[in-house]
Please model this.
Amino acid sequence: MIHKKLLVAVAAVGVMWASEAQATAILTIGNNPQPDENVLLNTGATGLSIFGTTNQTGLAVRFTGEELITAPSNGQARIDAVDGFFSFLMIDVPTGSFTSLILNPDATINGTVDFTAITNTGTEVFNNVAVSGSGQNFFTFTTLHGQRFTSISFRSDVPLLFDDAAQFRIGGAQRTTAVPDGGVTLSLLGGTLVGLGMLRRKFHV
Model:
């Protein structure tokens, strides 16, 4: 009987470890500062996508909605919808990636929101996360095993909508290193072989 209980306990630990090992991202409720940077928005910008920049490294950060969004030219740097409310927003670093994100969406009423975090190794979905219609709604995202985010998005569950989203901080943002295409690689390889051939001929003369 004792052996059976021990096996069950070991199996349970194994399942918990496997579940954590498969995860790629963590969502923490609250403002949990990382080694990150403020995102400065380009005030007055309007479109389906608008841009900001990290305040230290100057990397572009893109905000994309399903309707026209804007960064108001007065007051705190924030994302608004042109018509006043929005239900979806995606944050990414064009041609790049990042390791953490903090944001604070302002909900119209109490309700829930669904987050989708995409990393270089998988997708994590956080459904039915509670938000308050009054007060702060800080959320902090971090990667778990050295992965890098390619994008994080959120969608409210109607009838909840968002007045705005603000106080964006992003950590570990960097551009993706370009990989030479096949033509460039073959050219470099060909040049190396020609050089080696010339050296070989020289030493055989």
Residues 110 and 132 are 5 Å apart (CA to CA). The radius of gyration is 24 Å. The longest helix spans residues 182-204.
